[in-house]
Design brief:
Elements (H helix, E strand, L loop, with lengths): L1 H21 L16 E5 L6 H17 L2 E4 L8 H14 L3 E4 L8 H9 L4 E4 L10 E4 L2 H16 L3 E7 L5 H17 L3 E9 L4 H14 L5 E3 L3 H13 L7 E5 L3 H9 L4 E5 L1 H16 L7 E3 L2 E5 L6 H7 L3 H4 L2
Parallel strand pairs: 1-2, 1-3, 3-4, 4-5, 5-11, 6-7, 6-8, 8-9, 9-10
Antiparallel strand pairs: 10-12
Helix pairs in contact: 2-10, 3-4, 5-6, 7-8
């Protein structure tokens, strides 16, 4: 009897072993049949402003949709060219599969981006251009057109003669330079009654610097009918300084970009209009187009991610809500 039980156990063991051989084995990290996820480095101009958080969220969404690992790293300040160059060089050394970058400078980033391409790492440029034709695509707002729309909104709001001040951002930033050019050219061509008092004052990459420049401009000019700010920190600076000086009622503010404080300011009448980009779309499209290029699909050289002029009259419209409230928390928890 005991021998019979042992025999049955032996046969059962053989059956289990055979059944086990028929099952496919679980893949392991070292299995050559397993294709590792691609790694894409996304390098913003900075990491503190709400704009870049929306870019990050869009990149993460695209990474999830495509099964791509997103590595987010950039300089803390939006004028630290050397740090952004170091970040690019670090990712070249690590051998990432691709780079999506918003260049801080249209010239200084040429060398490291060329080195990335020469190392077999494709580059997609977003937000701000660079004087280099080696990227697989450029996904950004048509910034000149954004400046044109800002000027036309200024003309609509003032409805007549006025004195205008333009705060510039930083030298070498292609995106904001194009906005400034679009605004100034359109004001001069289409609104000759609007006089530009100043267009050569730079706020710099920090809110503190922009506030200082805004205060200096208010000290220089006792009468200002309108101000144009080409980016988030410059717009916030004018919103604060004009309000604190008690001069907002006499001055129209047309700014660029959106943040929680700017949306609140728009609703409260502390800002009159914002030209709002879609940074979420920049991050999402930048990663998606890069992966398309890596996988051999045709990619357009230039993609316009659009912008919307938002004022108190349309800020609750579906189109405005799409750009004013991108789903940042959903992807950056």
């Amino acid at each position: 009897m005991l021998n019979r039980i042992r025999g049955l156990g032996f046969l059962a063991g053989i059956a289990f072993t055979i059944a086990g051989c028929d099952r496919p084995s679980e893949p392991t990290a070292g299995d050559p049949a397993v294709t590792p996820a691609r790694t894409v480095a996304v390098i913003p101009k900075g990491t503190s402003h709400e704009f870049w958080k929306a870019v990050h969220a869009g990149a993460v969404k695209s990474g999830r949709d495509l099964g791509v690992e997103i590595v987010w790293q950039g300089p803390a300040r939006e004028d630290d060219r050397d740090d952004q160059i170091k970040v690019v060089e670090q990712f070249i050394t690590k051998g990432v599969d691709g780079i999506v970058i918003a260049p801080l400078d249209d010239t200084a980033l040429i060398r490291p981006l060329k080195e990335a391409a020469e190392a077999g790492i494709p580059v997609a440029v977003i937000d701000s251009g660079v004087n280099w034709d080696g990227s697989v695509t450029f996904a950004a707002t048509d910034n000149y057109e954004g400046g044109v729309r800002a000027a036309r909104e200024m003309g609509r709001l003032l409805e007549g003669p006025g004195k205008i001040v333009v705060m510039r951002y930083v030298e070498g930033s292609a995106s904001t330079t194009r906005r400034e050019e679009g605004f100034i050219d359109t004001l001069r061509d289409e609104f000759p009654d609007l006089e530009i008092l100043s267009d050569n004052a730079y706020g710099g990459a920090t809110l503190e610097g922009c506030v200082s420049t805004a205060e200096n401009l208010l000290d220089r000019f006792a009468e200002i009918d309108g101000v144009f700010a080409p980016c988030e920190p410059a717009t916030v600076a004018f919103m604060r300084t004009l309000d604190q000086a008690g001069r907002k009622d006499a001055t129209v503010i047309v700014g660029f970009d959106a943040s929680e404080s700017l949306v609140e300011g728009l609703r409260a009448g502390k800002v009159d209009a914002l030209v709002v980009q879609s940074p979420f779309a920049m991050g999402e499209r930048g990663v998606g187009l890069l992966i398309d290029a890596i996988e051999g699909r045709e990619v357009p050289a230039r993609v316009d991610t659009g912008c919307v002029v938002v004022n108190r009259g349309n800020m609750d419209s579906p189109e405005a809500k799409t750009v004013l409230a991108p789903p940042i928390d959903e992807y950056l928890r």
